[in-house]
């Protein structure tokens, strides 16, 4: 269903179906939702040949478009990655159901009994690029949190996402839940994105997951509230009191484990007091094929370091490139981060508890770490089962957007006949 003549009508119909499904889903119990997820996982495992065939078409399409190797890696599925997607669905099924949780409870002197209770957000729109696993993660998280969802995957992952969506649909059918709980926009036409961004009153939250151009467009044009981060310019600060061997391993992992994800480190800041340790810190990166762009102090240590420009401090490379700079201690590192960070994830490497506390309390990013790789900026690693994305805003959700962040709340007030004087 790629060639659709009337996209506004199609999206309006999908919106109506989603709202109806959300109302039905509000009455679903935890066992039903969990069964939908576990049955979808079974369907994924039995559909591996079809998934691999679909993904091969998408990879060929991506290569024809000239996607970078990092972007192709995001797109690629193999048996291990499909198994990871299925396991992720089961992990979400195993998580506690947030719906109905009493967040707070109190009584007033007049006898009124108040409860603040978790409820679904309603209908969620997710717009994403390349990664077909987002189809499963987003669909599953929205379902478990009691929401209907409209998914608009990237043109590159069209066939893979369609196949994964079919498995989610099988799970919904097996659990007796409305199949329109999880819908996938059946066209590559970008006009569908514009329609989603205008569906206020139908979609309650939009979550964009992709590159700067996609997220920037969504944030600029959406008439629906947005959970998002524009980019992931993540920093590592190596303090004078760092364990150098530990720091070198963390830096290498933060950059090179997967260079194309938003939690990959893009800038390393090193306390000038330990500039003699720079070779030990950057050699593993260089040996792994990472290009280093450094300031004059870093360049002086190794002639393989390329001169950094001002633009490097504001660049999300998403590739085997990293910028490195000397700074005068933790306060200077915090100031650099405040100026150049995208507010995503930053980490301090130090054995000095006071420096660590200063960094954790002063740096105002969604995720702030101590002696850990920035690549842990992931909902699954936070114990959330999975995430729908990372949010760097300050309203409602910040950091990994998991089950709890996909809920709202309402107040339940119980009385015994009270009237207000």
Give structural notes.
41% of the residues lie in helices and 19% in strands. The relative contact order is 0.14. It starts with 6 loop residues before the first helix and ends in a 7-residue tail after the last strand. With 421 residues, the protein is α/β, with parallel strands linked by helices. The chain is globular and about 70 Å long. The mean pLDDT is 94. The chain has helices at residues 7-25, 30-46, 48-64, 69-75, 79-94, 133-144, 158-175, 191-197, 212-221, 244-256, 278-287, 296-299, 329-340, 353-362; strands spanning 102-107, 113-120, 123-128, 148-152, 182-184, 205-209, 234-238, 265-271, 291-294, 306-307, 321-327, 345-349, 367-370, 390-391, 399-400, 407-414. The chain has a seven-stranded parallel sheet. The longest helix has 19 residues, at 7-25. It folds into two domains: 8-227 and 401-413, Aldehyde Dehydrogenase, Chain A, domain 1 (3-Layer(aba) Sandwich); 234-376, Aldehyde Dehydrogenase, Chain A, domain 2, CATH 3.40.309.
- Find the CATH topology of the largest domain: Aldehyde Dehydrogenase, Chain A, domain 1
Instruction: State the share of residues found in helices, binned by percent.
Output: 40-55%
Categorize the overall geometry: globular
Count of separate DSSP helical elements: 14
Per DSSP E runs of 2 or more residues, the count of β-strands stands at 16
- Structure classification: alpha/beta
CATH superfamily of the largest domain: Aldehyde Dehydrogenase, Chain A, domain 1
Corresponding CATH architecture of the largest domain: 3-Layer(aba) Sandwich
**Oligomeric description of these chains:** single chain
Q: What is the first-to-last residue Cα distance? A: 62 Å
Low-pLDDT stretches: none
């Amino acid at each position: 269903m790629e060639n659709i003549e009337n996209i506004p009508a199609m999206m309006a119909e999908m919106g109506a179906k989603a709202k109806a499904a959300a109302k039905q889903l509000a009455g679903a119990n935890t066992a039903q939702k969990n069964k939908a997820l576990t049955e979808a996982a079974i369907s994924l495992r039995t559909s591996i040949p079809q998934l691999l065939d679909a993904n091969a078409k998408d990879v060929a399409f991506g290569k024809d478009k000239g996607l970078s190797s990092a972007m192709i890696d995001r797109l690629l599925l193999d048996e291990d990655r499909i198994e990871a997607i299925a396991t992720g669905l089961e992990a979400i099924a195993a998580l506690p159901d947030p719906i109905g949780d009493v967040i707070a409870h109190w009584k007033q002197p007049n006898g009124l009994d108040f409860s603040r209770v978790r409820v679904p957000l309603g209908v969620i729109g997710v717009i994403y690029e390349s990664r077909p696993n987002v189809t499963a993660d987003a669909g599953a998280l929205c379902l478990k949190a009691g929401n209907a969802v409209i998914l608009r995957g990237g043109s590159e992952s069209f066939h893979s996402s369609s196949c994964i969506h079919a498995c989610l649909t099988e799970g919904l059918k097996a659990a007796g839940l409305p199949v329109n709980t999880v819908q996938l926009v059946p066209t590559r036409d970008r006009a569908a994105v514009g329609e989603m961004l205008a569906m206020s009153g139908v979609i309650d939250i939009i979550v964009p997951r992709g590159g700067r151009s996609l997220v920037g467009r969504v944030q600029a044009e959406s008439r629906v509230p947005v959970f998002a981060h524009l980019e992931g310019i993540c920093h590592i600060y190596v303090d004078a009191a760092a364990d150098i061997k530990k720091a070198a391993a963390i830096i290498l992992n933060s950059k090179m484990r997967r260079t194309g994800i938003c939690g990959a480190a893009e800038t390393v800041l090193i306390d000038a007091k330990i500039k003699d340790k720079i070779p030990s810190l950057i050699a593993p990166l260089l040996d792994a094929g990472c290009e280093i762009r450094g300031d004059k102090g870093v360049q002086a240590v190794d002639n393989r370091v390329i001169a950094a420009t001002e633009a490097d401090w504001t660049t999300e490379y998403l590739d085997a490139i990293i910028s490195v700079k000397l700074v005068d201690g933790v306060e200077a590192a915090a100031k650099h981060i405040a100026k150049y960070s995208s507010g995503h994830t930053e980490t301090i490497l130090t054995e000095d508890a006071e420096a660590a506390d200063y960094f954790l309390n002063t740096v105002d990013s969604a995720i702030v770490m101590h002696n850990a790789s920035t690549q842990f900026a992931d909902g699954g690693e936070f114990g959330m089962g999975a995430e729908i994305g990372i949010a760097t805003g300050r309203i409602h959700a910040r950091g990994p957007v998991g089950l709890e962040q996909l809920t709202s709340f309402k107040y339940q007030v119980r009385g015994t006949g009270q009237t207000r004087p």
